[in-house]
Amino acid sequence: MKDHDILVAGAGASGICAAIAAARSGKQVLLVEKSSMLGGTNTQSLVCPLMGFHAGSHQVVRGLAQEIVDRLAHRGGTLGHIPDPLGVTETITPIEPEILKQVYFEMLREEKRITLLLHSFLTDLHQEQGKIQSVTAVHKGGSTVLSSDVYIDATGDADLAVMAGVPYTHGRASDGFAQPMTLVMKIGGVDFSKVRKAMKDRPDQFVLCENADQIPYIAVSGYFDAVAGGHERGELTFPRDRVLLFQGIREGEAVVNMSRVVKRQGTSVTDLTEAEIEGRAQADEILSFLVKNIDGFQSACLIETGAAIGIRETRHIHGQYTLTERDILTGAEFEDAVAMCGFPIDVHDPLGKELYWTQTDTANCYDIPYRVMLPGTPVNLLVTGRSISATHEAAASARITPTAMALGEAAGIAAALAENGNVGLVSIPALQERIRDAGGIPGRKYL
Ligand SMILES: Cc1cc2nc3c(=O)[nH]c(=O)nc-3n(C[C@H](O)[C@H](O)[C@H](O)COP(=O)(O)OP(=O)(O)OC[C@H]3O[C@@H](n4cnc5c(N)ncnc54)[C@H](O)[C@@H]3O)c2cc1C
Predict the structure, then answer these.
(1) Which of 21, 130, 136, 311 is 20 to 30 A from 232 via CA?
(2) 183-204 pLDDT per residue, tens
(3) CA of 388 relative to ligand 1 center, distance in Å
(4) Is the CB of residue 404 below 6 angstroms from any atom belonging to ligand 1?
């Protein structure tokens, strides 16, 4: 099957943006996705709100990511960018995953140059002389060999890169453990006025920004004593020190990001199976715990759980540049910047119950260089999204969805610019100009 120029593997936030950007650059694109839906973690696993569109007074991610938010707003699927009540980042963007699915399908229907292949798992790759020649998708009908000039790996797990022999690190360098997985659940029937009252009465029990009481939206990172009590009584049996949840976009709804499955690898089928089982058992514990112990949750009910457990971290490729913790803490700028991030380092303890946020004055605003997406060999491969070349600590910041979208958009434009498929030879000024033409912000100097 070869009637396209660029193949994008994985239709998560990053892959969709890559495919659309490449198509809008005039290329024929094949977008291959293993599941039935578009949107990856945000739709399959209900992960929201989007975080990191702003740093200080600047919007640092625009382009396709902002277009997606605008389309969501048009359908009533987001509250837009609002101040982050937790004070972790500048703004958060609550969305409804179900409406995001519709937005993505709408966008792909409009892009006539994109061919979509769902229910197709990429399992094999053939390369010759440092160039990928084809990949194989397995599906109900058997398998199909697919080839193109350029390949964009947006699988979140660097699946194509690993098949091509690109070196990588899984999780953190010291022991290979990755950030925990979370089965996100959406609940209804929450009385948020009681949550707000608890925040007023016991501010020591919550992480809140200074003027959180003036923000007409509630995010909860807290109820520390109640959670400790839940552990003591055996009502909670997994390592988590707090309730973590975000108000949904509809009355009385909350997205609960509290379960925690540790020491499992998101690239191991047995670990993934165990993680789904554990995540669901934890979801039952969480709902019972909230109903029994937290004022405002007495009538809470389960609306939905993610179709798949949310995976924060697996593999990081070793690319031409590796983004580090220092880059994030010093607000790094790069000549070959293609995207920005407005989010601090946010490590959910790979082994235990803690949550660490590392913020400095400059921590919430840095450039991401093109080289983090370049493995070098194969010469016609770009890796975007969650598995770019970054340390465990740097990825704990750069993994957020708006930045994955911005990187995907840059990857799509770069793939379209690559002569003879060689993504390493793309002109950086031309790439940055095209990103700006599309409404994006390649780096801090363009703010
Ligand atoms: C629990 C949790 C909470 C989070 N909280 C936030 C938050 O509050 N705000 C925020 O902005 N970000 C948050 N994140 C991070 C963010 O959601 C993700 O890192 C980001 O969206 C990743 O996007 P992606 O496109 O790189 O990868 P993914 O969303 O993982 O997309 C990868 C896609 O590739 C497909 N795929 C994988 N392998 C193959 C294959 N071999 N063949 C074909 N298709 C394949 C998958 O099905 C998927 O659709 C959170 C993540 C998790 C797990």
Answers:
(1) 311
(2) 999 999 999 999 999 999 999 9
(3) 12
(4) yes
CB 101 within 8 Å of CB 107? no
Check pocket membership of 262 for ligand 1, CB cut-off 6 A. Answer: no
| CB of residue 342 inside a 6 A radius of ligand 1 | no
Domains belonging to the chain, first-starting first, are 6-175+313-446 (3.50.50.60), 185-305 (no CATH)
- DSSP character at residue 71: H
Report how far residue 240's alpha carbon sits from residue 355's, in angstroms, rounded to the nearest whole number. 9
Ligand 1 in reach of 114 Cβ (< 6 A)? no
Helix%, strand%, coil% for the chain, nearest 5 = 35, 25, 40
Give per-residue pLDDT as tens, 352-362.
777 777 876 66
pTM: 0.98
Does any ligand 1 atom lie closer than 6 A to the CB of residue 14?
A: yes
Radius of gyration of the chain (CA): 21
DSSP 166-206: --EEES-TTT---PPBB--EEEE---HHHHHHHHHH-GGGB
356 phi, psi to nearest 5 deg: -115, 130
Are the C-beta atoms of 207 and 221 separated by less than 8 Å? yes
Q: How far is the CA of 14 from the centre of ligand 1 (A)?
A: 8
CA triple 308-392-277, angle to 5 deg = 25
DSSP helix/strand/coil, 297: coil
Question: 310 alpha carbon to ligand 1 midpoint, in Å?
Answer: 8
46 touches ligand 1 (CB under 6 Å): no
Q: How many angstroms separate the first and last alpha carbons of the chain?
A: 42
User: Torsion angle, CA of 396/401/404/408, rounded to 10 degrees?
Assistant: 170
pLDDT in tens, 388-405: 999 999 999 999 999 999
